[in-house]
Write a structure and sequence with these properties.
Elements lengths: L13 H15 L4 E7 L5 H11 L4 E6 L10 H7 L11 H10 L10 H15 L5 E6 L6 H13 L5 E8 L12 E3 L5 H11 L6 H11 L3 H6 L6 H4 L11 H14 L3 H12 L5 H10 L4 H10 L3 E3 L3 E3 L2 H9 L3 H14 L6 H11 L5 H16 L3 H14 L3 H17 L3 H12 L5 H18 L6 H11 L4 H18 L7 H9 L10 H15 L1 H17 L4 H17 L3 H17 L6 H14 L3 H18 L3 H14 L2 H13 L7 H18 L2 H11 L8 H15 L3 H18 L2 H13 L3 H18 L2 H17 L3 H18 L2 H13 L14 E3 H11 L4 H8 L3 H15 L4 H4 L8 E3 L1
Parallel strand pairs: 1-4, 1-5, 2-3, 3-4, 8-9
Antiparallel strand pairs: 6-7
Length: about 900
């Protein structure tokens, strides 16, 4: 476009070309690069991509372009880009291969998780890199279908050491959602000097200086405008007789210029351009077939179209610029467009491209048409099966509009609303629910409509916002679909627990609704018992509800679970195991949940599953395992653009490590996150974390204040209960015996109801702190014994520390040395640095010298490097590590080489002898 003579020079784009040249050189050197080239229509984005093509000698090149009319076809853009690479499918892991093949419609299968498709795409691109760098170019990325854009954004965030350069051109618009947060090159207008130079290259006749100045000023350096607008000038205008100044946006002016040129062509040529504009594939044979259906002389029309410079026909149909496509479509009236859509539907092979065909049929419809609507519903099912939720929503939305029967129209509107909700289009989803409720819905559908409204409210606003609607939906569904009603109650009570103190009505309203429902007596299914048990804890007290919960949790441990039930109910069961102090059940069920989520590629559930599991591992004293899970959860968060998982993992882990800065950063980030302001559970969790941190550091006044705030709302259970445990330790240290005794009584009451080793050990530990003499000694010993039995090694180590401190105060130095040595060894091995330092100071006081930081390794690895090294120790291959951490095998190898250098080793085998738990880590 803005070229001066040879194809290797772009006028006024030296800086932009240098950025691209440097990225290409980086890819040739073995490092990946990603760039979003963003600018207005006609600014020269495509020409910059062409510049890369000119310079890409010795590179493998794959290309794709977004097309506006393909935005509803799932994975269309990604398939276009990856099609030349599909010969490498066989070398990527089987789950990824199957996900990608299903997404591309190459095989039938369960709906693939979009992040698994993203990982598969990353693996495919990495596998395609051989001796040559790979250059991936995507033009008009703003028109990619939603799931393709999301997948490419996922891939872009994970590229590092693959010799790949991914460049995406995006038309600038009001929204910055497309490919946000990626490295960006903003392409602006040319300067005045370069604008005049470019204008002179296309104006061959005399041009009045005033006109020249005005063109330069009005085009604002837009190269396409400088090249195209002079074509529309009359002789009078070129001589300086301008009319009324143009007030439309520049892109509209350029499109209007193309429109004038199109309307100057023969009628059949205009129709041929309309066919090409309507069907974005660019298939020449399809273009000719549709032209034949309309009685167009395709050869003659194609010759004139190419002579106009607006379109070229080679292997594929190509427009001079996307604005030509939109101008060609705009030039036609409704009836003419309808006839073209009908001709294309007739020409497309329904067995090969059913979605494209039915979309054209729908566009050709003149009114309600049940046959077309039914085909759209079928296409929605296929799109959903391929993971194209947004596409399925679009098909269902159009099917709703074409459905003549009002009852069926309501059902389809509800299905479309659900798909829009799943795609994150909440406003449209609300509108479709409104439309569905205008139709006659049966009781089940009416209940589902209310459920969907509640889910939209919860997702779009806060956990508590949708509670009333979720409750109403559960009540309406109970007589007709008890299983769905229980799932709705589960989601409602989970939302209420999350909202906690900030909920309106809150968990008690949900609990009362559960208990008012027939069948919730506590003797039904394990799922019903779980709900009933929690409801009775809330309404009648821990002593009434906890035994039902313990029984239900045991049933989950003993019975089989389908994948669907496991992913839906195990998070709730894990939380209830924690609430009833059943550590063995919490450990087992959280491990099963993580395995199930990983095995099914359920990345919507996996991050929360990892957080449940890492909390369990922290209490087990396995901070190394918890850190591993935090890295994995963070990797998913990085891939999806969410930092919540990393910060929440740090909130649970870092206080026990005694790392004040990291804990404070996690607390500050979570409390300031506007998306979490409606979640009281986050407020409780941050206060509990502060209490643990300060107890470890010996800052008991601060620990006491945080613990008091953390246990303000005991109905939240979970960390609210744990805050009470921290409160006892801090209160005793400060001499606030009455408050400590009050908290101890509450812990003792719960322990007697639960009866588990964890509960009884926690109770004994708390009672020991408010007792004296031999009674205190006996309770300390009982606490250690029971906590050891429970497997809660962090609590057991802290119990040993408190016992050792008590023994020293009682001047029983020999016994204190033994107990404090046990505590220090356990806490130091776990990496609980602050608590270990407390033990070290106490040991010093009884005459035992302990080396500070006595470790064999002085290297400092990043958390990701530690995790990769740990997985290598576990026998994982690079592809397996990449699948776990959402990295390509090349990037894993790149990290591993850095680990080798830092550790001074030269093989994977040598890593096996390194004590990673003693390793210092950097951010």
């Amino acid at each position: 476009m803005a070229r001066d003579g040879a194809r290797t020079e772009l006028i006024g784009r030296q800086d932009e070309c240098k950025v691209l040249d440097d990225l290409l050189a980086q890819a040739r050197a073995g490092r990946s690069g990603v760039l979003v080239v963003r600018g207005e229509a006609g600014i020269g984005k495509t020409e910059l991509l062409n510049h890369l093509l000119d310079r890409a000698t010795g590179c493998r090149i794959v290309r794709a372009a977004g097309v506006q009319s393909e935005m509803e076809l799932p994975y269309a853009g990604l398939h276009q880009l990856c099609a030349p690479l599909l010969s490498h499918l066989e070398v990527i892991p089987e789950p990824q291969r199957n996900a990608l093949r299903t997404a591309f419609g190459m095989q039938a299968g369960d709906t693939p998780d979009r992040f698994l498709v993203g990982l598969a795409t990353l693996s495919l691109i990495a596998a395609a890199v051989g001796d040559e760098p790979l250059l991936c170019l995507v033009d008009d990325a703003q028109w990619l279908d939603r799931v393709s854009a999301q997948t490419l954004q996922f891939v872009a965030r994970r590229l590092l050491a693959e010799s790949v350069l991914l460049v995406l051109a995006v038309r600038e618009s009001g929204s910055r959602e497309v490919l946000a947060d990626l490295p960006e090159l903003a392409v602006r207008g040319l300067g005045e000097r370069d604008s005049r130079r470019l204008l002179d290259s296309v104006v061959t006749g005399p041009l009045d200086q005033r006109v020249r100045d005005r063109i330069v000023a009005e085009t604002r350096g837009n190269p396409l405008a400088l090249l195209e607008l002079p074509r529309g000038l009359t002789l009078l205008e070129m001589a300086g007789e301008f009319g009324v100044p143009e007030s439309r946006p520049l892109s509209s002016q350029i499109e209007a210029g193309f429109l004038r040129r199109i309307r100057s062509l023969d009628a059949q040529t205009q129709q041929l351009l309309l066919i090409a504009a309507t069907e974005p594939v660019g298939d020449v044979s399809l273009l000719r077939s549709a032209a034949e259906h309309l009685g167009i002389d395709a050869d003659r029309a194609a010759t004139e179209a190419e002579a106009s410079g607006l379109m070229s026909l080679g292997t594929w149909v190509r427009f001079r610029h996307p604005l030509v496509r939109s101008a060609a479509y705009r030039a036609a009236g409704f009836e003419e467009r309808r006839r073209v859509h009908a001709a294309l539907a007739e020409s497309i092979d329904a067995t090969l491209y059913p979605e494209r065909r039915v979309w054209h049929l729908a566009s050709a419809a003149t009114g309600p048409d049940e046959n077309v609507a039914a085909e759209l519903v079928s296409s929605a099912g296929r799109a959903h099966a391929r993971g194209g939720v947004a596409a399925a929503a679009a098909f269902l939305d159009r099917a709703t509009a074409l459905t003549p029967d009002p009852v069926r129209r309501g059902t389809r509107a509800l299905a479309a609303a659900r798909a829009k909700y799943q795609a994150g289009a909440f406003d449209t989803a609300r509108e479709l629910v409104d439309a569905a409720e205008l139709s006659p819905l049966d009781e089940v559908e009416a209940g589902r409509a209310t459920l969907l409204r509640g889910q939209i409210m919860s997702a779009a606003n806060s956990a508590s916002a949708g509670l009333p609607l979720l409750l109403e939906a559960a009540k309406r569904l109970q007589p007709f679909d008890p299983a769905l009603a229980d799932q709705t109650y589960r989601d409602a009570i989970y939302a209420a627990l999350t909202a906690g103190r900030l909920a309106t009505g809150g968990v008690r309203d949900v609990a009362e609704a559960v208990l008012s429902t027939p069948g919730h007596t506590g003797t039904e299914s394990r799922e019903t018992r779980l709900l009933t048990g929690l409801a009775r804890v809330v309404t009648e007290g821990y002593a009434v509800g906890a035994p039902i919960l313990l029984d239900a949790v045991a049933a989950f441990r003993e019975g089989e679970l389908s994948s669907e039930d496991g992913l839906g109910w195990l998070p709730f069961a894990c939380r209830m195991a924690h609430n009833t102090w059943d550590f063995a059940a919490w450990s087992e069920l959280s491990a099963r949940l993580v395995d199930l989520a990983r095995g099914n590629g359920a990345l919507a559930v996996l991050p929360s599953a990892l957080l449940l599991r890492l909390s369990n591992r922290v209490f087990a004293g396995d901070l190394r395992g918890a850190a591993s899970l935090t890295v994995e959860a963070s990797a998913i968060g990085e891939a999806t653009g969410s930092s919540f998982f990393a910060h929440y993992g740090a909130l649970v882990l870092e206080p026990f490590r005694g790392r004040e800065s990291a804990t404070r950063q996690a607390i500050e980030t979570l409390t300031q996150d506007r998306l979490l302001r409606g979640e009281g559970k986050v407020a409780t969790a941050t206060q509990w974390a502060a209490a643990v941190l300060h107890n470890g550091l010996g800052r008991y006044e601060e620990a006491y204040a945080a613990a008091e705030r953390g246990c303000e709302n005991p109905q939240e259970l979970g960390l609210s209960l744990q805050s009470r445990v921290e409160l006892v330790e801090a209160a005793v240290r400060l001499g606030r015996t009455e408050r400590a005794a009050e908290a101890v009584r509450a812990i003792e009451e719960m322990a007697q109801v639960s009866g588990t080793p964890w509960a009884l050990g926690t109770s004994a530990a708390a009672r020991a702190l408010v007792s004296e003499g031999e009674k205190a000694d006996a309770l300390h010993r009982e606490a250690i014994e029971r906590l050891d039995e429970a497997g809660v090694r962090m609590d057991s180590a802290r119990a040993r520390l408190r016992h050792g401190e008590w023994l020293r105060q009682e001047r029983r130095r020999a016994q204190a040395r033994t107990r404090l040595s046990e505590a220090h060894e356990m806490l130091d091995a776990a990496g609980a640095e602050a608590f270990a330092e407390r033990a070290r100071r106490e040991l010093t006081a009884v005459g035992v010298k302990v080396r500070v930081g006595a470790t064999a390794e002085n290297a400092v690895l990043t958390a990701k490097e530690v995790e990769i090294a740990r997985l290598v120790q576990g026998g994982f291959t690079n592809p397996e590590i990449g699948a776990r951490l959402f990295l390509s095998p090349h990037t894993v190898e790149w990290h591993l080489r850095k680990v080798f250098v830092k550790l001074g080793v030269s093989s994977r085998k040598e890593i096996g002898s390194v004590r990673l738990e003693a390793m210092s880590t950097a951010p």
